[in-house]
Every structure is written in structure tokens, then in C-alpha cells.
Write a structure and sequence with these properties.
Blueprint lengths: L2 H6 L5 H8 L3 H9 L7 H8 L3 H4 L4 H4 L4
Amino acid sequence: MTLADHLKQRRGSASDLARALCVKHSTVLRWAANRVPADRVEAVARATGIDAGVLRPDLAKAFERTT
């Protein structure tokens, strides 16, 4: 599920996410339309439950957990 899908399915509002991340509502909408900046991926993933590798597949290797 992408950030846009998450917001469309009302799993959370852009305003709520913006408040949680201390950014503007318009910033969350821009991220949903384009992509989440690399330095915000982990915070968005924690706040939404969306896997970081799904939010930014181009950076998926960077977010893989090693055990």
C-alpha cells in the first residue's frame, strides 16, 4: 500500500499524519502524490504502518533489517 492508498482508504488523514510528523498538511499531500523524502521514510513508515521499502522501493535495501 502506498501513502496515497493509505490516505484514500481513510486509514489516516493527511492532517493527522502531518501533525504527527510536524509538517504541513500540504507536505503530506505532496509526498503522497510524488514520493516521501529519504530522510522521512522511517518516520512515515512508523506513523502509518506502511513498510519503508514500499514507501521508497528505490531505497528498499537501505531499510532492510538485518538479524
